[in-house]
Design a protein that fits this description.
The chain has about 1050 residues and is of the alpha/beta class. Among the domains are: about 170 residues; about 220 residues, Rossmann fold. About 45% of the residues lie in helices and about 10% in strands. It contains 34 helices and 18 strands. The longest helix is centred in the middle third of the chain and has 55 residues. The radius of gyration is 38 Å and the shape is globular.
C-alpha cells in the first residue's frame, strides 16, 4: 500500500537522478511531446524505397541529436525533431512493399537485428523517432505485420533482454505519446498490448517472460480480456506465465560479515527484494485487472494456482546459476563498486519466500471470486475427476464405530479437498436408532475423529467446504470440534452444533470465508456472535448463514433479534476490518520509515568518511544528494504517520460506540438509529484515503488478507436439512429371512470356502468389476475388498459417491460375490440413474413409464462404466440389472454394445441378470442381455434348482440360486443369482491362481470366457439326464464337494475339455 513517499528503484542502493542520468535515461521524466505547428518542410527527397527513406531519416535524426548542445533538454530536442522531420516521417510511416509494416515495426526490427543496446547513441535516436512517429499517428501502434502478426510493441519486447529497462522506456513513451496527442490514442495503445501474434501471445505474455520492469504499466493499459488471453503453444494466460516455472527466481544473499552484512551484500539483497516486489506487483495487477484469470486452465488443465504448485521445487543448496538474478546483479555497476568483502564468504542461496508469497496470494484471491464453485475452479482442473483424483469425500451416514482410518484405501486425493461431508446424526440411519445411547454416541465420535485422522495421514491440508451433521441432542464438545478442525485450512464451515461458540471458529478456522450457524433462539448467543470478540475477528469472513429456531421469545421478538444481529455484525465487521487495514498501513509505514532512516544514516556515514582531498568531489556530491532525498522522504513520511494515527484513533472510538449501542438495546429489540439504507455486500473503505491509505495493492500481496465484502442471511423456524444429497432407506435391513430353509448349494459353497479358501494367505486375488448402485464399504465383511471406484466426483458434486449404496442393492451383490470368493478385489462402478429405470428384483413388473432422458443417460452411463472396468483390467464384470432399449437411447446402446464387445475381446467374463418378468419380458429388447453372445444372462433358481416362477428360462444361459438365501433380505431374484455366478467364477479362477502360482500360462487358461462357459455348460449336463434338454442349473456342489483345491482343478479341467471337444 502506498502510504506516502517510498524508495524508488534508484534508492537506496542506486544514486539519485543527476543531469547525466537524465540525459541517458530521458524517458524517466519526459514521455510525450506537446502539439506543434508544422511550418517548416524538409528538403525534397528523391524517389527511393521506403526502407531507404527510413534509413536516411534515421541518419538525419542521429545527426540532429549529436549536433544538439549539452544544454538542450530532451523536451526541446523532441520539438526540434518533430518540426524538422515531420514530412519525412509522414512519407515513410507506412511501407509500400508491406502496408502493414509501419515505421514503428522498422525501428523495432533495426534495434533487434543491429543489436542496438542502451549505451549506443542509435538507441536514443530510435526511441525519440518512435515516440515522435507515434504522436503523429497513434493508430500505427495497433497495426500488425503480415508475417508474424506482431504489433510494434510485440517486436520491441522481442528485442529486449531479460530485465532490461531501455526497451520498456521506449514502449511507455510511445503509449503515452499516443494517449496525449489523440482522443483515441489510449484505445490504440490498449489494442496493441492486447492483440495476439501468430502464436496467440499478447504483449503481456511476452513482457512477463522477459521480466520487463514495465509489465505492470502494460497491464494497466491492456484490456481485461488480455489477461485471460490463451497462448496457442501451451494454453497459458499471462497469469500462468507470471506464476509458472520460468518466472524470476528469488534468492537470498548470505554474508560472511558479522554482525552486520557487508555493503555489497546489502545492495545485492535490496535489488533482489525490489525484483521480488515487482513480480508480486505484476501478479496483483493481473488479478485486479481480471480475476477470471484465476479460473483459466491451460492445455494441461492447470489453473495458475495448480501450475504454480506443480512448478515449485524444494529448496536445495546450489550454485547461483539463475540467469535472471545473476543478470540483475552483474549489470548494476552501483552494486559492483560497493564495498569489498575481502576474504568474507558471501553467496546467494535459493529461497522459497517468493514462491510462498505467490501461493498465499493465489489461494486468498480464489476465495474473493464469489463463492465455493468459483474457488473450486482455481484449485481443481476441469478434468480432475477424469484422472481418478478424488476431491469429494462423503462416507456412509451416519458414521459408526466400524469406520476406521484404513477403511478407504481407494480414496486417492491431493492436499486439497473440495468437500468433506460427514454425519454422526442418528436420524440419518436406517430404521430407528437409540440416539441417546451413550455407547452409540461415543462410537460415532470415535469414528468421526478417525476420519479426520485418516485425512491427515493422506496429507490433506486444505478443505474448501466441510459439512458435519452432529448429534443435535448430544452434540460434540467445543474441544472435540477444535481438535478435528485445527489441522486443516477450512474455508466454508457448516457444523450444525446448536449455538456454536464463536471462539471455536476463530481459533480453529481463522481464514473461514463462509459460515453456517444454528441458533436455538437464545439472544445472548446472537449478541456474542455480533460482539467485538465474536465473528468480526474473522477477517476473511464473507458470508454468514444463520438458521434459527424460536426459543422462549415470541416470533416477532426473535425476528427482530435476528435482524439486529445481522446489522450489528455488519457494523462490527466494517470497523474491525478498517482498523486492520489501518494497522497494516502503520506497519508498512514503519518499515518504509526504517528504510529511509537507514538510507539517511548510511549517507551521513559516507559523508563523514569522504573528507580526504584524495577522494573525488563527485562522490561527496552523490552522497549529499542521497542524504537530502532521504530527509525529504522522511519528512513526508512523518506527515503520513500522523494521519494514520488519527485514523486509528477515530475507528477505535467508533468501535466502542457500536459496542455500547448493542448493549443499550435491551434484548436486541430496539432498532438501531441509523437505518437510512440497507447495506450492500461491499465494504466501503474510501474514507481511509483521508488517513493516508491510498491503495490496497501492496497490502493484498501479504498474508493478512482482509475481505471487503460481507453479507448475512438468516432462516427462522426452518427444519435442519440433510447434507444436500438424498439418502434412501435400505429396506433390505428390515426383511426377516429367519424362515429361509437350508440351501444345499449355498451350504456346499460356504463349506468349501471355510475349509480351503478363507484361511489361505497365499496372496492370490481375483479382480471383479461390480456395476451397480454403489457399495457400503464401511461394513465389516467388505473391509479392504473395494480397491477402486467410479465415477470420481467433480469438486462441486452433491452426488452420493460409489462407496455408498443408494438402496443397498450393490452392497448385497458385493457381499454375495465376496461370500463365494473371499479373496476378491472389487472394482465398483456406480450408475446414478440405476434405480430410476433398471428392471430388477421386481418379479413380474414391467417398467414402461421411465423418463426418456433417464433411458438415454443409463445406457451412456453404463457404457462409461464398462469402459472404466476394462481400464482396471478386471477378470469378471457383474451386472445385476437390465433395461429396455428404446428409439431414444439407440445411439448410446450402440456405444454400450461396442464397450461390451471390447471387454469380451480382452477376455473379460461378462454376466448380466435376467429381467425377472416371466414371459412378459420377451416383449421387450433388454440390455445388456441383447448386446451379444459374449454376455451371459443369469436367471434365478429355487433351492431345488428349478427356475424361479418369474424367470423365462428360454432367455437365460445359466440358473444360479436366487431364492431362499439367508443374509440378503428381500434381494431375491436374478440379481442375486448373477452375483453368485460372478463370485463362483472368481472362486474357480482363484483356485487356479493358487494351484498354478508359478505357471502363468496355466493361471491364465481358465480366465477365457469360452472356457468358463464350457465349465458351466458341463455342470448343467451333469445335473440332467443324458439326451435331456439342459436345465440351466449350474450345480456348484458337483465340483465343490469333490474335496480340496487340487480336485476342483481336475474337475474343471475335465469338464472344460469335454465341453470343448463336444462343440
Amino acid at each position: 500500500m502506498a502510504t506516502g513517499a517510498q524508495p524508488t528503484d534508484e534508492g537506496p542502493s542506486a544514486p539519485l537522478p543527476t543531469s547525466d542520468f537524465v540525459n541517458s535515461h530521458f524517458f524517466d521524466e519526459y514521455f510525450a511531446p506537446p502539439s506543434f505547428n508544422h511550418d517548416v518542410s524538409p528538403k525534397a527527397v528523391p524517389e527511393i524505397t521506403t526502407a531507404q527513406r527510413r534509413e536516411d531519416l534515421f541518419d538525419h535524426v542521429m545527426n540532429k541529436i549529436s549536433s544538439a548542445g549539452t544544454s538542450t533538454t530532451i523536451e526541446r530536442l523532441k520539438q526540434d525533431l518533430l518540426k524538422t522531420f515531420f514530412d519525412q516521417i509522414t512519407a515513410c510511416k507506412y511501407g509500400v512493399e508491406d502496408e502493414e509494416r509501419t515505421i514503428l515495426h522498422w525501428i523495432a526490427h533495426k534495434i533487434k537485428f543491429e543489436r542496438i543496446r542502451e549505451s549506443d547513441p542509435k538507441f536514443k535516436a530510435a526511441g525519440l523517432l518512435a515516440e515522435i512517429a507515434t504522436s503523429m499517428d497513434p493508430k500505427m501502434l495497433s497495426l500488425r505485420d503480415t508475417e508474424k502478426k506482431s504489433t510494434p510493441i510485440h517486436m520491441l519486447i522481442s528485442c529486449a533482454k531479460s530485465s532490461e529497462t531501455g526497451i520498456g522506456e521506449i514502449i511507455l513513451a510511445m503509449c503515452r505519446a499516443a494517449e496525449k496527442d489523440s482522443p483515441e490514442g489510449k484505445k490504440y495503445a490498449s489494442e496493441a498490448i492486447s492483440m495476439q501474434n501468430k502464436d496467440n501471445e499478447n504483449c503481456l505474455h511476452m513482457a512477463i517472460k522477459k521480466e520487463l520492469s514495465i509489465t505492470k504499466d502494460l497491464i494497466t493499459l491492456a484490456s481485461a480480456q488480455a489477461v485471460v488471453a490463451v497462448c496457442s503453444i501451451d494454453g497459458n494466460t499471462p497469469l500462468h506465465d507470471a506464476v509458472g516455472p520460468n518466472r524470476f527466481a528469488y534468492r537470498k544473499q548470505v554474508c560472511g560479515a558479522n554482525p552486520r552484512p557487508c555493503e555489497k551484500c546489502q545492495a545485492i539483497q535490496a535489488q533482489m527484494d525490489r525484483s521480488k516486489g515487482r513480480v508480486m506487483k505484476d501478479i496483483v495487477a493481473l488479478i485486479v485487472k481480471n480475476p477470471k484469470a484465476l479460473r483459466s486452465k491451460n492445455k494441461e488443465d492447470l489453473s495458475p494456482y495448480l501450475l504454480h504448485k506443480q512448478s515449485r521445487e524444494p529448496v536445495r543448496p546450489a550454485a547461483p546459476t539463475n540467469k535472471s538474478s545473476l543478470t540483475l546483479m552483474d549489470k548494476d555497476d552501483s552494486i559492483r563498486g560497493l564495498g569489498d568483502t575481502g576474504k568474507q564468504k558471501c553467496k546467494t542461496v535459493p529461497s522459497n519466500d517468493l514462491d510462498e508469497e505467490i501461493e498465499r496470494y493465489l489461494v486468498e484471491s480464489a476465495f474473493d471470486l464469489g463463492g465455493f464453485e468459483e474457488a473450486c475452479d482455481c484449485f481443481f482442473g476441469d478434468k480432475t475427476h477424469l484422472k481418478g483424483k478424488d476431491s469429494v469425500f462423503r462416507p456412509e451416514r451416519p458414521l459408526s464405530g466400524l469406520d476406521s482410518d484404513n477403511m478407504y484405501p481407494f480414496f486417492n486425493c491431493g492436499t486439497t479437498l473440495a468437500q468433506v461431508d460427514l454425519s454422526i446424526d442418528p436420524t440419518d440411519s436406517k430404521g430407528s436408532a437409540a440416539s441417546n445411547d451413550t455407547i452409540q454416541v461415543e462410537d460415532a465420535r470415535i469414528a468421526l475423529s478417525r476420519i479426520f485422522e485418516m485425512l491427515k495421514k493422506k496429507n490433506v491440508k486444505r478443505i474448501l467446504k466441510l459439512k458435519v451433521r452432529d448429534n443435535t441432542k448430544t452434540p460434540c464438545s467445543d474441544d472435540f470440534i477444535e481438535n478435528c478442525l485445527r489441522p486443516f485450512d477450512i474455508r466454508y464451515l457448516d457444523w450444525n452444533k446448536p449455538d456454536l461458540c464463536a471462539d471455536v471458529v476463530i481459533r480453529s478456522t481463522p481464514r473461514v470465508t463462509g459460515l453456517w450457524l444454528y441458533a436455538t433462539g437464545n439472544n445472548a448467543v446472537l449478541r456474542s456472535w455480533a460482539g467485538s470478540n465474536g465473528l468480526s475477528n474473522l477477517l476473511q469472513l464473507r458470508s454468514v448463514h444463520v438458521q434459527s429456531k424460536v426459543g422462549l421469545e415470541s416470533y416477532s421478538n426473535h425476528l427482530a433479534a435476528v435482524g439486529a444481529f445481522k446489522r450489528d455484525l455488519r457494523a462490527s465487521i466494517e470497523v474491525v476490518r478498517k482498523l486492520k487495514i489501518m494497522a497494516m498501513g502503520q506497519m508498512q509505514h514503519q518499515t518504509i520509515m526504517g528504510q529511509y532512516k537507514s538510507y539517511s544514516d548510511n549517507a551521513r556515514q559516507h559523508l563523514q568518511e569522504v573528507q580526504s582531498p584524495l577522494e573525488p568531489s563527485q562522490d561527496k556530491q552523490l552522497w549529499q544528494a542521497r542524504l537530502e532525498w532521504a530527509e525529504a522522504a522522511m519528512a513526508k513520511g512523518e506527515a503520513i504517520g500522523t494521519k494514520l494515527t488519527a485514523g486509528v484513533t477515530m475507528l477505535l472510538q467508533r468501535k466502542e460506540a457500536n459496542l455500547q449501542d448493542i448493549i443499550n438495546r435491551l434484548g436486541l429489540q430496539q432498532q438501531p438509529q441509523d437505518q437510512k439504507k440497507a447495506p450492500t455486500d461491499e465494504i466501503d473503505i474510501s474514507e481511509l484515503q483521508q488517513w493516508g491509505i491510498q491503495s490496497l495493492g501492496v497490502l493484498e500481496s501479504t498474508t493478512n488478507f482482509v475481505a471487503l465484502r460481507f453479507r448475512a442471511e438468516s432462516k427462522i423456524d426452518q427444519p435442519v436439512t440433510g447434507s444436500g444429497h438424498k439418502l434412501t432407506k435400505k429396506s433390505s435391513d428390515k426383511y426377516d429371512d429367519s424362515s429361509c430353509k437350508p440351501h444345499q448349494w449355498v451350504e456346499s459353497l460356504e463349506r468349501f470356502v471355510s475349509d480351503h479358501v478363507q484361511r489361505s494367505d497365499r496372496g492370490a486375488r481375483v479382480k471383479v468389476g461390480l456395476i451397480d448402485d454403489g457399495v457400503d464399504v464401511h461394513l465389516g465383511d467388505l473391509k479392504d475388498k473395494v480397491k477402486a471406484g467410479w465415477p470420481t466426483e467433480k469438486p462441486t458434486s452433491s452426488r452420493v459417491p460409489f462407496y455408498q449404496s443408494a438402496e443397498g442393492h450393490g452392497t448385497t451383490m458385493a457381499r454375495l460375490i465376496a461370500t463365494a470368493c473371499p479373496h476378491v478385489d472389487l472394482y465398483v462402478a456406480k450408475l446414478e440413474s440405476l434405480n430410476r429405470v433398471i428392471l430388477r428384483d421386481e418379479p413380474g413388473k414391467l417398467i414402461d413409464n421411465a423418463n426418456r432422458k433417464d433411458w438415454i443417460s443409463t445406457a451412456d452411463e453404463a457404457a462409461s462404466a464398462i469402459k472404466w472396468a476394462r481400464e482396471q483390467k478386471v477378470d469378471i464384470i457383474s451386472m445385476s440389472w437390465s433395461f429396455i432399449a428404446t428409439t431414444q437411447n439407440q445411439a448410446h446402446l450402440e456405444r454400450l454394445t461396442q464397450e461390451l464387445q471390447s471387454a469380451a475381446n480382452e477376455h473379460i467374463i461378462l454376466y448380466c441378470a435376467a429381467a425377472d418378468q416371466g414371459m412378459y419380458g420377451s416383449r421387450k429388447s433388454l440390455y445388456p442381455a441383447n448386446a451379444g453372445a459374449n454376455i451371459k444372462v443369469v436367471g434365478s433358481a429355487t433351492e431345488t434348482g428349478h427356475s424361479s416362477s418369474f424367470v423365462n428360462q428360454g432367455l437365460v444361459d445359466y440358473l444360479f440360486p436366487g431364492e431362499e438365501i439367508k443374509g440378503i433380505g428381500n434381494r431375491k431374484g436374478s440379481s442375486a443369482a448373477t452375483a453368485l455366478a460372478a463370485g463362483f467364477a472368481a472362486l474357480v479362477i482363484w483356485c487356479h491362481e493358487v494351484h498354478f502360482k508359478s505357471n502363468p500360462e496355466k493361471r491364465a487358461w481358465i480366465k477365457k470366457a469360452e472356457r468358463m462357459d464350457s465349465l458351466f455348460q458341463g455342470m448343467q449336463n451333469l445335473a440332467t439326464k443324458p439326451d435331456a434338454p439342459q436345465s440351466g442349473w449350474v450345480d456348484a456342489s458337483l465340483v465343490l464337494d469333490e474335496g480340496d483345491i487340487k480336485q476342483v482343478i481336475d474337475f474343471v479341467d475335465r469338464e472344460v475339455k469335454r465341453g470343448v471337444s463336444s462343440k
